Amino acid sequence: MAIEVVSASMMTSDETTHMARCVGGDRWVVSWLPGRTLTGRQAVTAMTIATTVATREMRTGAEWALLDDLALELGLTAREATFMVALENHDYRKTVEPRARVLD
Fold this sequence. Notes:
Elements: E1 3-6, E2 10-13, E3 16-24, E4 27-30, H1 40-55, H2 61-72, H3 78-87
Helix pairs in contact: 2-3
């Protein structure tokens, strides 16, 4: 699991499309938690959760307990976090192609 901090303003992972961006000071927004601002530590936790969900099938109680411990730092349960990671799974790293405009 590799979470990379890019110039102290963005966190990405090679195992998930989710990302975190610094919005000033120690305040971060994470792609799978729209509308929430986190601390840097919480952003790392959120990225860890996104990477874990992307790379593992949670089969045992111990795996769910580990994810529950991480999610608790964000005020969530493991099941809530897993659902939100899947729900907000957009690739924000893609370059958007401009749409052709037709003027009549």
